[in-house]
Amino acid sequence: MNRETDVPEGRDFLELVWHQEEECQTETDALLPNLGKKAPATMIHIGTVMSLLDRMASCWWVCRGGDHRVEYLCGRALNDARAAVRLLRFGLYDESLALSRAIGETANLMQLFTMDRSALDEWRDATDQKVRRDFSPYRVRRRLEGLSQSPAITQERYALLSSRATHVGPHTVPQSHNVLGIPFSHSRVQAEGILVCLNELATPLCVVAALGAILLDLDKDTRLRILNCARTLAVHIGGATITEIDAFHQTLRD
Ligand SMILES: [Zn+2]
Q1: How many domains does the chain have?
Q2: Element spanning 100, H or E
Q3: Do the domain assignments include residue 29?
Q4: What's the domain range around 236?
Q5: In this predicted model, what pLDDT tens digit does every residue of 81-123 receive, in sequence order?
Q6: CA dist., res. 88 & res. 44, Å (int)
Q7: Residue 18: inside a domain, yes or no?
Q8: How much distance in Å is there from the Cα of 140 to the middle of ligand 1?
Q9: In angstroms, what is the span from residue 61 Cα to ligand 1's centroid?
Q10: How far is the centre of ligand 1, averaged over its atoms, from the C-alpha of 108 (Å)?
Q11: Among 172, 201, 191, residue whose Cα is nearest residue 83
Q12: Spacing, Cα 72 to ligand 1 middle (Å)
């Protein structure tokens, strides 16, 4: 075997990884209904909340006019969620988590705006420099704590998602969603990866939908419907999360 000529490059390499991703997606879809009661339901309720966010982002019920900043936040969260679902079905779990972390930033920002409407006006008119200084994820959490609110996405969850999925470091191990901590370099179905990604997506998504419905001042019936769907998603969030999975693995190894 000639090691150099047998390795696909260019378009051939892309076709190979796309094929691996599609196989992983088919396997994931077949496995999900067998991953307990909560996970299949979580995926379905994620679909419903995404549908509602799609309507919130596109003025489906009413166009309020103005700068559409809240609608754009809903649209960004929706697109991140669409990609996060796609990536978890491709076996790209770390990358899916990075997008859920981004939705979490929007969730906390919306929480701040809900608690303090003047913060929304302050943010709306802010320069890029002021946004970086006064509305960074850290500052938003501190501002919420200053209002006696626990941030929807806690510092612990945000830090774990950051170290696991966003920032590379000497302890980075790609796609290691298994008890042995084994990395995988290509799309491979890992049940724990599916569960953690689903639960970590559902966590900020239900917050964005619920608070978006409030910030958009939708009519009472529509608002209550969205709040109910967000609550239904929230109660289906399972125990396999970024904050619990390492301790769970440790109990299996002890
Ligand atoms: Zn509009």
Answers
A1: 1
A2: helix 93-115
A3: no
A4: 35-253
A5: 999 999 999 999 999 999 999 999 999 999 999 999 999 999 9
A6: 15
A7: no
A8: 27
A9: 9
A10: 23
A11: 201
A12: 10
pTM of the shown model: 0.94
Lowest mean pLDDT among 62-76, 153-167, 180-194: 180-194
**Nearest 5°: CA angle at 186, between 180 and 190?**
45
Residue 23 covered by a domain: no
Helix (H, G, I), strand (E, B) or coil at 136: coil
Measure the CA–CA gap between 32 and 123, rounded to whole angstroms: 40
In a domain, 7, yes or no: no
Of the candidates 92, 243, 237, the one whose C-alpha atom is nearest the C-alpha of residue 158 is 243
Three-state secondary-structure class, residue 41: helix
Q: How would you class 249 by CB atoms within 10 Å of its CB: exposed for 0-12, middle for 13-18, buried for 19 or more?
A: middle
Expressed in angstroms and rounded, the spacing between residue 62 Cα and the centre of ligand 1 is 7
Give residue 217 CA to ligand 1 midpoint distance, Å: 13
- Residues in Cβ contact with 32 at an 8 Å cutoff, skipping those fewer than 6 apart: 39, 40, 43, 194
> What are phi and psi for residue 59, nearest 5 degrees?
55, 40
